[in-house]
Amino acid sequence: MPTCDHCGSHVSERFARVFADVEGRILACPNCSANAGIAEVARQRTRTA
């Protein structure tokens, strides 16, 4: 099962397909960021990773 690279929480395969970056990293999830802002937070964390 995939996990969030930021907080280590488990996420679903479907969530990983939608929100992972091109390298397969999941930089935000419902556990560590607001649901409405997951894509935006992931983009911000990609810039700093």
In short:
By secondary structure, the chain is mainly alpha-helical.
Structural class call reads: mainly alpha
Mean pLDDT: 89
Number of strands: 0
Approximate shape: globular
> What fraction of the residues are assigned to beta strands by DSSP?
under 5%
> How many domains in all?
1
Task: Specify the number of helices.
Answer: 2
Q: What is the distance, rounded to the nearest whole angstrom, between the alpha carbons of the first and last residues? A: 22 Å
- Outline the biggest β-sheet: none
Question: Uncertain regions: pLDDT < 50 for 5+ in a row?
Answer: none
Over all CA atoms, what is the radius of gyration?
9 Å
The helix fraction, in percent, is 25-40%
Helix and strand pattern = HH
Description:
It holds the Pfam family DUF7563. This is Small CPxCG-related zinc finger protein. The mean pLDDT is 89. The longest helix has 11 residues, at 38-48. 37% of the residues lie in helices and 0% in strands. The chain is mainly alpha-helical. The chain has one domain (13-48). It has helices at 13-19, 38-48. It contains two helices and no strands. The protein is globular, with a radius of gyration of 9 Å.
